[in-house]
Amino acid sequence: MRDALEAAVRNARGGRLAEALASVRAVVRTQPNDLEARTVLGFLLSQAGEHDQAAHHLARVAGARPGDPQALNNPANALMAAGRPMEAADRFRAANEAAPAYRPAWNGRCMALLQAGDAAAAVEASGLALRHHGPWPELMLSRSGAMLACDRVAEAIPELERAVEAFPSHALLRGSLLLALNGSGAEPPAVAAAHRGYAQGGPERAQPPAPDPEPDPDRPIVVGILSADLRTHSVAYFARAIVEHRPSDVRLVAFSTAAQ
User: What DSSP assignment string belongs to the chain?
Assistant: First the structure.
């Protein structure tokens, strides 16, 4: 049976997901109480985009392993992928209560509550996480997002400043601090200086070499737009003017960094 599971994982990694799912489903049908097989099935179903089914099987495993934080965390992740964040938050909370030392569940709970539209509860959950663990980058990103959603910008900025000081090479934390500064009411020269400081980088963020320009002065100018917000977001609406009013000899290429 172990050989069958290992073969299924290899098949999935090799792009043969349907074959992998069929073989693991056969194992689960013949041995429904095998938790390892059911866990593998849950992960493969998530990989196939069948997140509700994945959550069902991973919840079965979690019910049999009530003290295992990773087992409790797995169905919560599947529920998040299925678009059921409040149910995911309940699962993450169960993992927190079973094993307060397990950090991923704390951050997952904060993100789930934020996605469910309860930013205040996300701030509260992240505060509990800080009391158990102290700051770490992923949590501070989630916490700052929740604080900004609650319009607690003035509180978020010093926390982000301390986080950036503790983790100076974490680009997303620096970006979150700059975003908070944009809405803080700080003096524009100070905000601009912070952005320039980020652009200049430092020892931990080396600048890439400048590209060699093409010698043809009549070539079209290609401008790249890199963003995670080219969807239903204010950035996308602002970008429309750039597209419509660009010079005729400028070609725009957009790169989306969104996960989906």
Answer: -HHHHHHHHHHHHTT-HHHHHHHHHHHHHH-TT-HHHHHHHHHHHHHTT-HHHHHHHHHHHHHH-TT-HHHHHHHHHHHHHTT-HHHHHHHHHHHHHH-TT-HHHHHHHHHHHHHTT-HHHHHHHHHHHHHHH---HHHHHHHHHHHHHTT-HHHHHHHHHHHHHHSTT-HHHHHHHHHHHHTTT--HHHHHHHHHHHHH-BTTBPPPPPPPPPS-TTSPEEEEEEES--SSSHHHHHHHHHHHTS-TTEEEEEEE----
Largest CA distance in the chain: 70
pTM: 0.76
- The burial of 203, by beta-carbon neighbours within 10 Å (0-12 exposed, 13-18 middle, 19 or more buried), is given as exposed
CA distances from 37 to 45, 54, 67, 87, 101 (A): 12, 12, 19, 24, 27
42-90 confidence digits (pLDDT tens): 999 999 999 999 999 999 999 999 889 999 999 999 999 999 999 999 9
